[in-house]
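thread: overnight batch results

M.L. [08:02]
morning all. the overnight job finished for the chain we discussed friday. pasting input first so we're all looking at the same thing
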Amino acid sequence: MGTLEKICEDLRETGSDLTKVNRDFRLWLTSYPTDEFPVSILQNGVKMTNEAPKGLKNNLMNSFTVSPIGQPEFFNGNSVPVKFKKLLFGLLFFHAVI
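M.L. [08:03]
and the structure it wrote out:
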C-alpha cells in the first residue's frame, strides 16, 4: 500500500516535460473495504460504490446477466447442459441468499 501511495503522489507532482502527466489522465482503482488503504488516495479521489440489488429475485436476475454467465456460449456451451444449469442455478441462488 505504501508503494501505491508513492506512485499516486508521483503522478500528482509536475516535473520535467518527460514526467508530466496529461491533465485528462485518470487512474481507476478498485478495492474491497480495508483499513490499510492509504487515506491520501481516498481524500484526493472520487469514490464510487456498487450496491447489490435488493431482494432475492433481483439478485438472481443480476447474476444471470453478468459476464460470462449472461453470454449464450457460456450458458449453453456445456456437454451436460441440464446438470450444468441446475448446478449454476443452485450456486447463484446460494450466492443471492448469502
